[in-house]
Amino acid sequence: MAQAALESGWGTSQLSTKANNYFGVKRGGSGAYVAMPTQEYVNGHYITVTEKFAKYNSVRESLEGNARLLANGLSWNHNYYLGAWRSKASNYKEAAYGLQGKYATAPDYAAKLIRVIETYHLQEMDGGYINDGTGWFWYENGQKFTGFRFYMGTYYWFENGARINNAWRSAWGYRYYVDGEGRAVQGLRTIGGKRYHFGTDGTFYLRTNQTVAHNQEKYRASSTGELQPWSGYFDAPAGWRWIENGQMYTGFRFYMGAYYYFRNGVRQHNQFVSQWGLHYYVGSDGRSMQGIHMIDGKRYNFGSNGTFYMR
Asked: Which of 40, 73, 252, 255 is least surrounded, with the fewest CB atoms within 10 Å of its CB?
């Protein structure tokens, strides 16, 4: 950007207005061109010469032409502009000096580029997720960045520009976890055999010291964020258990469209149970029965109005 501004006089030069050439790129080999006078610094002073400059059909072609020149160098040295490459220059100043004496003969060419960059804060444009020739890195202000950045619809964590995967990271006073693709996770997650909750509202941070809900279940998050079953039906190490307020529950609970009876958290089957001064029967699937049923050779009526108790 600074080169285009400097070489074209911010788009006012004859070369840019007549040939869409914003970088002063000379014609290489064949192709359309315009002949124009230019100044070169030779033996300690400037001289005026006429050169053949590349002629482009659009501004985009000019950008692409300059990019090819810097990337491919000259026919006799493809690394001619190596000093200006992002993979070699650690910042915009080094890149500017990598052009001096090569791209232009002016002894103050780098200083002029740097002055344009810093006057108009163009270094702030030198960022994003970029392949610098050695790999993909996140840059900001010409430097490899460390921290979270939003990219392609989600947040990623970068360290010295490199994306980090499968790791805990801290920022803004909170803890976060990035998965195998580097994305900050949300919702309920199992990490290292422990369960954690990272919210579902787009904030991504680990919840601690609070009760968190997931579907029909509630968990209690400790100070480290590790979740303990709090209320709901959980797949525990000893099997499925109904837990309320962190304790194994005894009694009826409505779940998945039916009433089930639990004793010390365990769902009961094929037996009479009592609650609220009434008797009920739970079948082989654990559901409270309704209607008339034959149990151990005897007939019982459990109603048909959604109350389930034995008449």
From this structure: 40
Which CATH number fits the domain that encloses residue 213?
A: 2.10.270.10
What is the Cα gyration radius of the chain?
36
pLDDT in tens, the chain (311 residues): 889 888 888 889 999 999 999 998 988 778 899 999 988 888 888 999 999 999 999 999 999 998 888 888 888 888 888 888 766 776 778 888 889 888 888 889 899 898 987 887 777 666 677 776 778 888 887 788 999 988 888 899 999 989 999 999 999 999 999 999 999 999 989 999 888 999 888 889 999 988 777 766 777 888 999 887 677 777 777 788 887 887 888 999 888 888 999 998 899 999 999 999 999 999 999 999 999 999 999 999 999 998 899 99
> For residue 70, is it within any domain?
yes
**Are 229 and 272 in the same domain?**
no
* 167-171 and 174-178 strand pairing: antiparallel
Last residue of a domain, one of 94, 123, 152: 123
Are 292 and 284 contacting, i.e. CB atoms less than 8 angstroms apart? no
What is the DSSP annotation of 8-33?
HTTTTSHHHHHH--SS-PBP-SSS-E
Give the amino acid at 3.
Q
Residues 6 or more apart in contact with residue 138 via CB below 8 angstroms: 127, 128, 129, 130, 144, 145, 149, 151, 156, 158, 161, 163
Domains held by the chain: number = 3
Q: State the Cα–Cα distance between residues 289 and 302, nearest whole angstrom.
A: 7
Does one domain contain both 177 and 262? Answer: no
Do residues 69 and 21 share a domain? yes
Residue 182 CB neighbour total at 10 angstroms = 18
User: Domain range for residue 233?
Assistant: 139-247
Could you tell me the CATH number of the domain that includes residue 6?
1.10.530.10
